[in-house]
Amino acid sequence: PGHGIRMARRDGQLVIFSSSKAKGMYNLRKKAAKLHWTSIWRHLNKKGSSASTSKKRSRRTKKVARSYVGMTADAVAAKKKSGPKRVARKPGSKAAIAEAKARGKK
Q1: How much is the mean pLDDT over the chain?
Q2: Among 12, 63, 80, 87, which residue's Cβ finds the most Cβ atoms within 10 Å?
């Protein structure tokens, strides 16, 4: 006693009912989603446990300016704002690049 009612369907799947009421409704081919006393109906219609479930708020990560050894945080920020240093190419590098591309195509 206390383990519900088990029934094997024709296709071999075992169906477990919690009560004879549930078994009767299953035999009458009633959908559990349409019966107000079932947990499926309560879940679909958002009944119960509404106070405890709320959308979890996520925190955004904050960027913190840190200083390095021999450089303050303000100096690091100033260096970042100035942008990356551009290195000028040698005068004949464009021709060398074009020649290398031509060799690669052959």
Answers
A1: 86
A2: 80
Which tokens hold the place of 85? 């240093």
5 close to 17: Cβ distance less than 8 angstroms: yes
Which tokens is 89 given?
Answer: 């190419």
- With 70 as the cut, is the pLDDT of residue 52 above it? no
pTM to 2 decimals? Answer: 0.43
d(CA 26, CA 5): 12
| The residue count for the chain | 106
Q: What gap in Å lies between CA 85 and CA 87, rounded to an integer? A: 6
Q: Calculate the CA dihedral of residues 97, 101, 103, 104 and round it to 10 degrees.
A: 140
**Residues 28, 39: contact at Cβ < 8 Å?**
no
